[in-house]
Amino acid sequence: MMEVLGRASRVAFGLLFPPQCALCRRPGALLCAACAGALPPADGRRCDCCWMPLARGGLCRHCAEAPPSFGALRSPFILDAGARRLAHELKYGGMTAFAEPMAQLMIERAGIPVADVVVPVPLHRARERSRGYNQAAMLARHVAAGAGMRSDAGAVRRIRATAPLVKTMHREERLAIMHGAFAARPQRVDGLRVLLVDDVATTGATLDACGTALLAAGARSVRCVTWARAD
Ligand SMILES: [Zn+2]
Ligand SMILES: [Zn+2]
Predict the structure, then answer these.
(1) C-alpha 9 to ligand 1 mean position (Å)
(2) Residues 95, 88: Cα–Cα separation, whole Å
């Protein structure tokens, strides 16, 4: 029904049916304070670089042996429970309105580093066309706006379509798939500190490949923030 309503009607519809919490359906906000407070935090001891859980402080074995292109990744939540549901709704459910409250929580809980430009991990053109939007770009735009920075969704392009990474793939397999999948535009990133944004990080292979492209195009540094981390 929403598709056939004009903009004015949609505004009226919004007044008649105020937003309700994505997780508990209570009316008021898109994400109520109680549900936001119950999201599973990615806390405890973690790798200083890739944010993977560790038994002790410092760097994990992978980051110590072969440091990724990005200086650090931070994610406020574990990809579980409500954090997983929100990521899923944003990515597959067309719930783009969730990007703003999600980005706000990323700013509040992840400790956003200062950057010159906020850049989303791009989708391949064909994938973005079929989905209608890039969920990472939505998050990047709102993270930038909320943290008083500039975002640039065109700084990196996905130059090769890649098969979706699946849970059972090993780290090496993921790195091989993502290698060379991205290219950054030097005139948009040269000399800049980049904050790379994505919805979910697993092994960090996608962020690593994207960061490599950014550094190759002259970016001064790359740090990453994602909504959630799959441990
Ligand atoms: Zn709620
Ligand atoms: Zn690590």
Answers:
(1) 26
(2) 9
Amino acid at 125: R
pLDDT for 99-139, tens place per residue? 999 999 999 999 899 999 999 999 988 889 999 999 999 99
| Residue 174, pLDDT score | 86
The count of other CB atoms within 10 Å of the CB of residue 157 is 16
Tell me whether residue 56 is exposed, middle or buried, using C-beta atoms within 10 angstroms of its C-beta: 0 to 12, 13 to 18, 19 or more.
Answer: exposed
Residue ranges in the chain whose pLDDT is less than 70:
1-16
60 CB neighbour count, 10 Å cutoff: 18
Distance 120 CA to ligand 2 centre (A): 21
User: How many whole angstroms from its chain centre is CA 26?
Assistant: 26
User: Residues 196, 121: contact at Cβ < 8 Å?
Assistant: yes
What separation in Å is there between the alpha carbon of 13 and the centre of ligand 1? 21
Whole-number pLDDT of residue 1:
44
Give residue 7's pLDDT.
58
Q: Are 206 and 177 in contact (CB under 8 A)?
A: no
Ligand 2: centre distance to CA 171 (Å): 12
Is the Cβ–Cβ distance between 97 and 30 less than 8 Å?
yes
Q: Give dist(CA 78, CA 41) in Å, integer.
A: 6
Torsion of CA 137, 152, 230, 112, to 10 degrees: -120
How far apart are alpha carbons 216 and 124 in whole angstroms? Answer: 20
> How far is ligand 2, taken at its centre, from the CA of residue 15, in Å?
47
The pLDDT value given to residue 62:
93
